[in-house]
Structure formats: C-alpha cells, structure tokens
Design a protein that fits this description.
This protein has about 475 residues and is an alpha+beta fold. The protein contains eleven helices and twelve strands. The protein folds into three domains: about 190 residues, 2-Layer Sandwich (Beta-Lactamase); about 80 residues, Helix Hairpins; about 140 residues, Heat Shock Protein 90, CATH 3.30.565. α1 packs antiparallel against α5 and α7 runs antiparallel to α8. About 20% of the residues are buried.
Length: about 475
Amino acid sequence: MRSIRARTLLLVLSLLGLTTSLISYKSYRDAQHEIEELFDAQLAQTARLLEGMVSRDMPLAARRAIQDALDQAVLAQRQAGDEALAGGHRYESKLAFQVLDERGRVLLQSASAPAGVLEQMVADLQRQDGNAQVLAPGEPLAKIAERLAGYQRIRLGQHHWRLFILRDPRDSHWILVGERQDVRGELVEKVALRSLLPDLVGLPLLALLVWLAVGWGLRPLQRMAESIKARAPDNLAPLVLSPLPVELEPMGAAINRLLLQVNQLLEQEKRFIADAAHELRTPLAVLRIHAQNAQDARDPADRDEALRQLGGGVERATRVVTQLLTLARLDPNVAQLAMAELDLLGYLRNELAELTPLALARQQELTLEAAEPGDYRLLADGPSLGTLLQNLVGNALQYSPSGGRIQVLLEARADELLLRIQDSGPGVPAEQRQRLFERFYRLGEGQGAGLGLSIVQRVVELHRGRIELGDSPLGGLEVCVHLPRRR
C-alpha cells in the first residue's frame, strides 16, 4: 500500500473496529451477567413472597380462588391472540410458579406452569447418578432437599427454564418459581443491539471524518512535494517552507543538506574543470609548438631535439593529468576509502623498494629507519597511503641534489604513528611553507603541477590526521605526518 493516507486510515479503522468490538463484547457480557443477576433476584423474591402468602392454614376456598384467577388471566390472554391485555403482559405465559407439598403434589400453580417439572428434575438427578433411583414414588422430597433447593436449569419440551426452588420447613412446602430462558435472551439481545447500533451507523461517518482529518494532517507534506516539483532543475537553493511541522523538519533539513552536497559536488566539478583547463593550457600549447618544430625541422639533429622536447612535454602533461585525477578522487565530498588494518612498516618497505631505482638513478641515498620490534598497525586505506608516500618521497627526490640523502623515519606511539620524510635539498623558507599546500603553487622551476602536497593533505584529512612542515636535520625540508591508529 503506497498511500500514507490509505494506510493510516486502514490502521486507524482496524484498531477502532477491534477496540469497539472488544468493548461491545465486554458490554454484552456485563449486561448479560447483570440481567441474569436481576432475574435471579426476582425469582428468589417471588418465591419468598409466595412462601409468606401460601401456608398450611390457608383455607381451601381461598387457595381455589387464587388458582381460578391465575387460570382466567392466562386463558383471556390466549383468546386475545397472545397480545398484552390491559394491566397485563404477554410475557405472563413465560413465567410460572408451583407450590408443592412434601410428597410433590401440586397445591397451587400458575396456569402457564409446565407439567412434569418435578419428574424431569428427578430424572436429571438419576442420570447424574448413573440411573440409580434417587426418589421413589410417594417418598418425601426432603430426601433430596440438598440437591433440589436453589437455582436449577432444566429443559421442558422445546424450551429451557430457569428455576428457583425454595423449601418452607415450617409448612413442609416446596415453592418452584421459574421463567423461560428466551425471556432473558430477548432482553440481552435488545440491549446488545441498541448498544451496537450507534457504532454500526457511526463507523462509516467516522471513517469519512478520519479520511478528511488525515488529509488535512498530510497537507504540509503535499505542499512540500508541490514546492519541490515546481522547482527548476538548476535551482539548488535551500527549501524555505514556513511554518513547517515538527515531523517534517528532519525531512526538510535532510533535503536541504542533500541540496547543499549536490551544490558542493557541482562546484567541485566546475573547479576541477577550471583547474584542468588552467593547468593543461600551457603544456598543450608547448606540445603543439614542439610538434610544429619537429614537423618543420630540416636538420635531423633539430628534429630529434624537437621530438625529445615533445616527449618531455607529454610526460609532464601526463603527470599533470594523473595528479588532477588523483586530487578529484580524494576530494572529501566524494572519496570512499576502503579502511582496513594495515602494517605501515611493511607497507613502507614495499613502496620505498619501488622508488629506490629513481634514487639510484640520481645517485641519491634513500633509507628507512624504524625501531623493531614495534606495533605499526593502523586502520587506513592502502592505495591512498601509497599516493601519499609517492608524492612525499618523489618531491624529496626531485628537490634533493645529485648525491643527496632522503631519510624516512617511522615512530610508533600509543594512539598514532608518526611518519617523517627528511631530505638534503635547499629547504623552504618558513614564511612560504604553508603556501605549499595550495594547488598549483610551485617553488622554483619544478617539473610538477604544484599538486603533490595538496594531494598529501587530502589523504591526511581523510585519515583524520595532521601534517607539519619543518627544518630537516639533513639541511632541507622535513614533512611530519601524524596518522591516528583508529579512524
């Protein structure tokens, strides 16, 4: 589901429906319990009222008069089509009572009282006892008084009845008061229906209101989307949306940060193109002149000199392009270093072994000094450290005279490794040392593009280290690089 509004609406309505169902079920169970308690109390109250009205000393004529009145009321109700009479109710046929003597003979009963109540109860007790005889014909009911008295449920015909049986020890009477179970069921169903009906009717209306409320709540997000959609492709200015809800502030900040990073990348590309154009303009012009001279030369010696100059120019242009690409790759905004644990001493030995032929060609002495044994491990990116060493040692070889010395020292400390490159060259005045890190700044007539120390500084920054320039004990420049063991 891709719509936030639809997903929120589905979740809210599902939770609401589940909660409403649980509450309705709990209300139904509570109402059922309370109705059962109320009807049971009425049964007990009616039984005790009959206990006080019907006694052993009651005249037979009075008892017959009460019985005739009860019979006439139900008969009249049946003749009226089971409709309620004035002063009566159609549920009278669902309520019944009986007054029995000690032997189970009926002394008084309502006309709606079902037949065979006592016999059915005795039969139920016999089934519970494995069909053993519970009460013989003519035996007094006192024999099963403990199992007979109280609340009982029995099935008579097609209906279930709820009974309350009370024993009058004074007159040895048994009073049975009961009502059909469907009376209670109808009342519980009506209570439940009336409680659920507002929920069933109100749920669609509530769904519409929630839909509108969620839409109103998501309006700021819609405005943000419309604002972004309406922007021009080259518009990288920060989004300005006011007022912005608290929930959208992180999103707005993230979008503005992304726009800033994209803008920085574009500026980096523009700066790289401008730098490349600036630095390659002169070498390309020189290459064109040397090529023209070689083409126009008539003397083979002049042609060979022009071609030699052309080869040197190609080498210098290649070096410039390589350094420019390295500088672009190591830009902090785009660099993705593969950091891994590295033994710097072993790595130094391999790198210096590759640079030794250059020193020998210039009759220079290249040495490495490090205390052993020692822990020279750190977390670093091997290729970028190789670029750092090639630039630092290459500069030292270039600016040191023939027969000079270049010394590389490695020192292990608790939280960092200290790398020193010392040469016997002419050195750099203190006031000009900081400018060596500027791109395209060259001291003297070097063969490079002035990018070597800029590249070194980028590598050191990416490793969270620092670089310092000072005087070398050999008489030239000392470059000191601090590399932390952990990034």
